Amino acid sequence: MSWDWEFAFEVFPDIVGAIGVTIGATVVAYLISLVLGLVFTLLRRSSFKPLSLLMAGVIEFIRTTPPLVQLFFVYYAFPMSPFTTGAVVLGVHYATYVSEVYRSGIEAVPTSQWEASKALNFSKAQTWQKVILPQAIPPVIPMLGNYLIVLFKETPLLAGIFVTEMLQVARIIGADTYRFLEPIAIVGFLFLVLSYPSALFIRYLEKRSGKLHGSAEKGVKT
Amino acid sequence: MTEEVVDNEIKESENENENIVVSYKDVKKAFGDTVVLNDLSLNVAQGEKVALIGPSGSGKTTIIRMLMTLEQPTEGTIEVDGEMLWHKEVNGELLPADEKHMRKVRGKIGMVFQQYNLFPHMTIMRNCTTAPVNVLGISKDEAKTRAQEMLDKVGLGDKVDNYPSQLSGGQQQRVAIARSLVMQPKVMLFDEVTAALDPELVGEVLEVLKDIAAEGDTTMMLITHEMEFARDVADRVLFLDNGKIAEHGPPSEVIENPQTERLQAFLGRFNNS
Ligand SMILES: Nc1ncnc2c1ncn2[C@@H]1O[C@H](COP(=O)(O)OP(=O)(O)OP(=O)(O)O)[C@@H](O)[C@H]1O
Ligand SMILES: [Mg+2]
């Protein structure tokens, strides 16, 4: 099979047209993972033992089963649109990874910060909100950003449940024209074009997070 | 041994007439199998300045951490303003207090730590206003006014927009003191607040503490290795040894005229400095 530029240019707009679905699914799934990940982390740290154990079990279960299996299962078990199913399942799956990132950030905050909060009589909720999370999250923003890129690259899985993201569109074109090479290559190219700047941006964040609070730029607010 | 216990009890009855703010009753503290405090009974009167001295590991920090609710007593009770801190009495039975109760009582206590423990992500001003606004519920403006007043008092009124990392250790510790003062606690606890400082910065922090002590109304419990400072500031000095109050009394007795060999040996270490 040889490369056909004319065909490539012809199908390019169709595939680019699906970029919105890919990005949409990524953004929705990512937001779910950021919020749910934090909820997972906090519930795991609950002083009510049964709850934290249950949470640990749930997280372990989600993390150790393949996302594609989860996608199929939820797709056939619940009456949700393919897009919703995809975004929710990926979001929940990645929440377990994101939760681990939050945990590492939280554990890096010294015990003395908890003690100082107690000495000022903050409530538990206030301590989290005002003292712990604002210190735990900025250092892990690069790691969180990394998961955004990983998640983005995982969206072709959604083709498995017929979400018309880029790979699915490429497959449809391929099935119609019996030419797969160009559509698939275009999908890869588009992923590269989107991922690479994001990766650069995250590297920039990584550099910045080294110098929070009190160094040259003190405008870093959380 | 028995003599000391009797002695403790005499001191208690003497205090009965005064307004007692903090009262430890037969408090025992163990970490696992290691008992670090035994049958501690101690009353502190309103406005009193109590210095805790003693060798490393004698239990000084543990005593004040239990009052700050950072460490739970194994046995016995602690009262603040006549109210139990760790317990609640329900139908004549002592039950562990819930967080709501503890928060209410804890509000009367403030603490300054050896390592300052400022919030690194907040400016000096926000370090001093976040708790008053969120915990005491006062307005932002009022909190700022109060904080400015306290920061002026510790000589750092011009540092409000800085971050802790931009301050020297001595300055950070003075901020920590101001932050605690803004909350207007009845009792303030100080755990070796100059121990982490370079020698040339110790003086500025001790000066601030002396000023606060001189104002009189705040009850203070200070752990210190600065004997001269303890003598100047304290109304009463407690010498902790092996989890017990081995000697206590006004500085003129305890520091100037130690009775036990242990205390004499302990003080002897400070004489060269
Ligand atoms: N969290 C803990 N777990 C186990 N043992 C502890 C803990 N905290 C304190 N201890 C032990 O309790 C004893 C008393 O400690 P504490 O910190 O009260 O002594 P201290 O008089 O303040 O000593 P220093 O002058 O060194 O600060 C020590 O033997 C210490 O090792
Ligand atoms: Mg100590």
Automatic annotation (TrEMBL), chain A:
Keyword Amino-acid biosynthesis on entry: no
GO molecular function: transmembrane transporter activity
Transmembrane segments: 15-41, 184-205
GO BP annotation list: amino acid transport
Superkingdom of the organism of origin: Bacteria
Keywords: Amino-acid transport, Cell membrane, Membrane, Transmembrane, Transmembrane helix, Transport
Topology of this chain in the membrane: Multi-pass membrane protein
Entries under InterPro entries matching the protein: AA_ABC_transptr_permease_3TM, ArtM/GltK/GlnP/TcyL/YhdX-like, Ectoine_EhuD, MetI-like, MetI-like_sf
Pfam family, one: BPD_transp_1
Location of the protein in the cell: Cell membrane
Gene Ontology CC: ATP-binding cassette (ABC) transporter complex
Main location: membrane
Domain ABC transmembrane type-1: 19-202
NCBIfam families according to UniProt: ectoine_ehuD, HEQRo_perm_3TM
Family according to the record: Belongs to the binding-protein-dependent transport system permease family.
Protein name according to UniProt: Polar amino acid transport system permease protein
Organism encoding this protein: Geomicrobium halophilum
From TrEMBL, chain B:
Compartmental location: Cell membrane
Domain ABC transporter: 22-267
Domain of life, source organism: Bacteria
Chief location: membrane
Pfam families (UniProt xref): ABC_tran (PF00005)
Keywords: Amino-acid transport, ATP-binding, Cell membrane, Membrane, Nucleotide-binding, Transport
GO MF: ABC-type amino acid transporter activity; ATP binding; ATP hydrolysis activity
Keyword check for Manganese: no
Topological category with respect to the lipid bilayer: Peripheral membrane protein
GO CC terms: plasma membrane
InterPro entries: AAA+_ATPase, ABC_ATPase_HisP-typ, ABC_transporter-like_ATP-bd, ABC_transporter-like_CS, Ectoine_EhuA, MetN_ABC_transporter-like, P-loop_NTPase
Protein family per UniProt: Belongs to the ABC transporter superfamily.
Protein name: Polar amino acid transport system ATP-binding protein
Organism for this UniProt entry: Geomicrobium halophilum
